[in-house]
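[09:14] KT: can someone run the structure on this one? pasting the chain below
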Amino acid sequence: MSPQPLEKPAQQWPSPWPYDFPVAGKAVTSADKVARLSGREEGPVLTVTRRGLFLSAIAGWGAFIGAAHIGLLGTVRFLFPNVSFEPAQIFRTKAKAEFGENQVDETWKESNQVWMVNAGGKLIAISTVCTHLGCTPNWQAGENKFKCPCHGSGYYMNGVNFEGPTPRPLERFRLYVDPVDGKVVVDKTVKCQVELGTCEGDQFSLLA
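[09:31] RB: done, structure tokens below
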């Protein structure tokens, strides 16, 4: 009797080694198993050129410089916070005697939105804001009136309306004389409305 060929032992599957799959025509060695487990299987060779390296360096420096500029701008913005440069609500003008009789002084029209008016022997501080839609009227000395260029509202020298669509007189502000130097001080934080009868007090007019 001829000896029977030894049977090949059955391969255990799944293998105790993770990712150990049989490959046809290739014996799986211990080195292959270690390579699969470690992720060091052979792949395409990484090629680095001088040009690619140079471009990568430029991109990196560009990103760094951009980030630095953004940080610098943020720092400068922090050093200069939002500031509202509004006109002073309380400001000094000049002595009462320097305001001519029946005259409109436009010195503070642009800077503080106030006309200083000596009307009928009384000095008053009148707002330059039209009570219709907020435009700025112009003083027309030849016609002795304030005239709004937007919609034609008209006011007498004392600020009382008499023509156009404006619904009420111009507002007035509190004023007083500084006892130290005799200058007239205008306080825009306190105002009155002629039509409501709140401008009768001494704080809204001075005898010129």
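[09:33] KT: thanks! The two ends are 148 Å apart (CA to CA).
[09:34] RB: yep, looked fine to me
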